[in-house]
Write a structure and sequence with these properties.
heterodimer, A: alpha/beta, Nucleotidyltransferase, domain 5, five-stranded mixed beta sheet, globular, B: alpha/beta, Rossmann fold, 14 helices
């Protein structure tokens, strides 16, 4: 769909596991894309941006953006980016643009968990982020799904069938793997172990969120927002509903970056 | 004693800001701050468990890798338990010709001063015996004056940081302070002087960057400072034991030089090894006002009990004053740069926004 004045603004979020891109015109989202990450973050950026561009007539390539903002851990590797902004600010702005009444975000990505508290204007009020280790992140859930010989989607639904929760107490991903294998070898119900795994990830997010303050409404962003079992475990742990978003929650970082791009382009032309 | 050692001044390592360099200088020796020179850990895991203090791990590995073999002696202190253990390990594995252990009290009163004086006197006597020197009252007074002069110069640099635009980059001052502890005192004198004489910028440079203060323990690499500066913020001040706290407070020489030195060290701005979190926070609040600080980055070396316990008090204290604070942990060599970078950038964005709306 061609833009009203032919100007497009893009946000490109290069995560550890996926690359995301959102393209805006003056009014709305005109294209988006999500791809698995390449080894080289620059390659991921090129690929995901051109995939999003394909959806728009008259936009030939990444050179045609009026402004491009990179975010995510690979933000410094996004080619042609006019600027880069931390993914924490971008998630805050992305979510705020979808629903300004949301005050708290938990962003669960491939290797990071972040708790973010948002101001009235969509900027960061407070944030907390996991340390070095990837416990309680998407990477951890991927590892766990492999033990169950399931793809991530099937694993994310497994805990929904559980009647009980078997606690998984190890904080460390490697020790948790050992713990889960020994539970499985004792022939405990896989769904209940899966529920324990989801509860442990939810607990980690909860600990981070407590540091920034939990104010309703709350939403979940990042790749793990697609994990149904985790969402159920989080609602239980937080004793709070998770607000749905009108746009794919995995795109919030890229959307925030694109909105930032539109703002920055505006301040240049004015 | 080795012939070469009688020609060059003998070098005595000291460890922790509570060890008086005056005593080393008065013995005619060169003080060298022992701070860990390993840039990548290689062998320490074969000796120490991974959950022990990374400063100690670094210094110990530096010793194992023979980076401190040029020292004639080392003075350890019981500032924390890790330092006490390091003394034992060092004596066993590294075997510097002499190693001393200095008791440092926790009470900051007349009893504390009299106890600390007795410990310093022991140290003085041992040094006199081992190095065949006489540490006279006169030499102690001289050493006190020399150290005061250096303190004065460093404090003048920190004082100038109250200005806006900022006269010095935080990373630049940090590097200078690290060198001041590491290099011979007489070589450092012109170095500090030249920074002092460097023209101070008069024109504001670009948009006003948020003014940040680094607190806690930051290590010896400028990594944190550079991360902050590359994220469009300034490090105005670092009130750590390598920064402002190390230089604040002069020795006021009385009749008993040892006691005067003891008093200066016990009463300098305390690090978290001393009781009195409330006073430390009051001091932090005062610095924030004096230096027009917009946000605090509180950094703790992994497994440093003192710093990390105190962060649970400092974080809410600053937040209650509506001052943004970021707590980061480091492994002394700052190997997890990328994760820290994300945090710093988001923190700077948050602080900038707060400034705008204020």
């Amino acid at each position: 769909m061609p833009s009203s004045n032919g100007r497009y603004y893009a946000g490109c979020d290069i995560g550890s596991t996926t690359g995301k891109a959102v393209i805006l015109d003056e009014n709305r989202i005109v294209a988006s894309a999500i791809i698995p990450a390449e080894i080289d973050p620059e390659q991921t950026a090129r690929k995901v941006l051109s995939k999003a561009c394909e959806k728009i007539n008259g936009l030939n390539g990444t050179n045609d953006f009026a402004y491009l903002v990179g975010t995510g851990y690979g933000r410094n590797e996004v080619p042609f980016a006019n600027d880069n902004v931390s993914e924490i600010s971008c998630h805050a702005l992305g979510v705020h643009s979808c629903d300004p009444s949301i005050k708290t975000i938990v962003d669960i990505g491939g290797q990071d968990v972040k708790g973010i508290s948002i101001n009235e204007d969509g900027s960061i009020l407070e944030f907390a982020m996991n340390d070095k280790c990837a416990a309680g992140t998407g990477r951890f859930l991927e590892m766990m799904s492999k033990i169950f010989r399931m793809d991530l989607e099937a694993f994310s639904n497994l805990s929904l069938e559980a009647r009980n929760v078997i606690p998984v107490t190890s904080q460390c991903s490697v020790f948790a793997e050992t713990e889960v294998i020994s539970l499985l070898s004792k022939r405990r119900p896989p769904s209940e172990i899966a529920a324990g795994i989801q509860a442990s990830v939810a607990k980690r997010s909860y600990t981070l969120l407590k540091r920034v303050g939990i104010r309703p409404k709350l939403t979940v962003t990042g790749g793990c927002s697609k994990n149904k079992g985790l969402l159920v475990a989080l609602q239980k742990r937080l004793r709070m509903d998770i607000a749905p978003l009108p746009v794919d929650p995995q795109l919030m970082g890229a959307l925030g970056a694109a909105i930032m791009a539109r703002k920055k382009a505006g301040s240049i032309t004015q | 004693m080795n012939e070469q050692l009688t020609i060059a001044p003998r070098r005595i390592g000291w460890f922790c800001s509570y060890v008086p360099e005056e005593i080393i200088l008065a013995a005619g020796c060169e003080p060298v701050r022992l701070e860990g020179r390993v840039e990548r850990f290689q062998e320490i895991d074969s000796y120490l468990h991974a959950n022990l203090c990374f400063t100690i791990r670094n210094i110990f590995e530096s010793g194992l890798r023979k980076q401190y073999d040029d020292l004639d002696a080392v003075i350890f202190a019981n500032s924390c338990d890790g330092m006490r253990r390091l003394y034992e390990l060092w004596s066993h594995y590294i075997q510097t010709p002499a190693a001393y252990f200095l008791e440092i009290p926790k009470n900051r009163d007349e009893n504390g001063i009299s106890f600390f004086s007795s410990q310093l006197l022991n140290l003085k006597n041992q040094l006199e015996e081992d190095f065949a020197v006489s540490i006279t009252a006169e030499r102690l007074v001289q050493a006190g004056l020399q150290m005061n002069e250096r303190r004065g110069k460093m404090l003048e640099l920190f004082e100038r940081q109250k200005a806006s635009p900022l006269p010095y980059k935080g990373s630049e001052l940090h590097t200078l302070a690290i060198q001041e502890g590491r290099l011979p005192k007489r070589d450092m004198y012109p170095e500090i002087q030249s920074v002092l004489e460097k023209p101070v910028p008069v024109q504001p440079v670009g948009k006003a960057a948020p003014r940040l203060l680094v607190s806690g323990n930051e290590g010896t690499t400028p990594t944190l400072f550079r991360l902050i500066e590359n994220s469009n913020a300034d490090v105005v001040l670092f009130d750590t034991c390598r920064g402002l706290n190390h230089y604040t407070g002069m020795v006021s020489m009385g009749n008993d030089p040892i006691q005067s030195i003891a008093r200066r060290y016990l009463f300098k701005p305390a690090c978290a090894r001393m009781p009195g979190s409330a006073q430390r926070m009051e001091r932090l609040a005062a610095l924030i006002d004096e230096y027009a600080i917009d946000g605090v980055v509180y950094s703790g070396v992994q497994f440093c009990d003192y710093t990390l316990f105190e962060s649970a008090l400092i974080e809410p204290f600053l937040k209650a004053r509506s001052l943004p604070v970021l707590v980061v942990e480091n492994d002394y060599i700052w190997s997890n740069t990328e994760q820290i970078r994300t945090r710093i950038e988001a923190f700077v964005e948050m602080t900038q926004n707060k400034r705008r709306t204020a």
